[in-house]
């Protein structure tokens, strides 16, 4: 690494740091867990914690690789074999992390996408994480591979790490892999590829990711960029770096061995979050209302011509015109209340419902229009 490849600076002021470590950063070329790599990472994490006085949450892959090694399994594996390998490997992995971080305690959390989708489990996961950090433990998170199949899966730990960053309100998401950043083509197959130092809009670089990862990893650069889109869209800066523990030590000194993907501004971040919320119903609006929304105004009951679905106050709903989706937003009235006030003037709301919490059905700050 030459000095020209490094972007130097002061120690960053991060309070919460999520670091995702891929299988490729923990294993040797034969795909076996290589403890010196893991121990060097632990030293890097400690250095980063000391320098920033921030708290680190680790998302660690490697259970599958560790389990395959102990069970002497060779590829390709059936899904149950993969799950058994992850179940065996997870204990080995955690044992090694616990040794490497001692005396700091480590807290194991195994999550699936279902834990994020279900409100109660989401809150429980968040509480466990925040309490572990408060008590001085270092959370080490992996996907719960033994129960997560198809639609319940994150599928890759890059995506999981973006959700963890969201759960803990991280200032930065660090994705550590075996290449020092995002290149304009896969550097494995394009030796002349050039690295991008800073990315302002993840959407604009998504096409640069080759479809394949390493044989050891899952997803390659595509899933890292998707995770970066999620995280930066929610306001969390994302770094894709390579170089193992030494790269974390450099980061503690303000040196970046990779690519910085900038967080979106709060309003843009909110809109991108809004656009990702699952909708529970739809509001059909007339042409006048559509023109008002496009002019940056809020949706009033008068412009709503039909209501579909069963939703509550605060739920996300689609907005349609002529049956075509034109946007979505958070609704200030339940489907039941809206069915009664649609097409009415705002001054009529109290008369119809007996109360009026809002003039707007969807406030413009809670609305995102389809481009
Ligand atoms: N544009 C790109 N820039 C950098 N790496 C890329 C790019 N496109 C594809 N890759 C590949 O992504 C790989 C990293 O992904 P992966 O093997 O899944 O690692 P991990 O185990 O760390 O998640 C790199 O080794 C590289 O070959
Ligand atoms: N949960 C799996 C890791 C899945 C994954 O995303 O792997 P990687 O691309 O190496 O981060 C395991 O522990 O083997």
Automatic annotation (TrEMBL):
GO terms for cellular component: cytosol. Its EC number is 2.7.2.11. Pathway: Amino-acid biosynthesis; L-proline biosynthesis; L-glutamate 5-semialdehyde from L-glutamate: step 1/2. Transmembrane segments: none annotated. Substrate binds at residues 61, 145, 157. InterPro entries: AceGlu_kinase-like_sf, Asp/Glu/Uridylate_kinase, G5K_ProB, Glu/AcGlu_kinase, Glu_5kinase, Glu_5kinase/COase_Synthase, Glutamate_5-kinase_CS, PUA. This is Glutamate 5-kinase. It comes from Truepera radiovictrix (strain DSM 17093 / CIP 108686 / LMG 22925 / RQ-24). The lineage of its organism: Bacteria, Thermotogati, Deinococcota, Deinococci, Trueperales. The gene is proB.
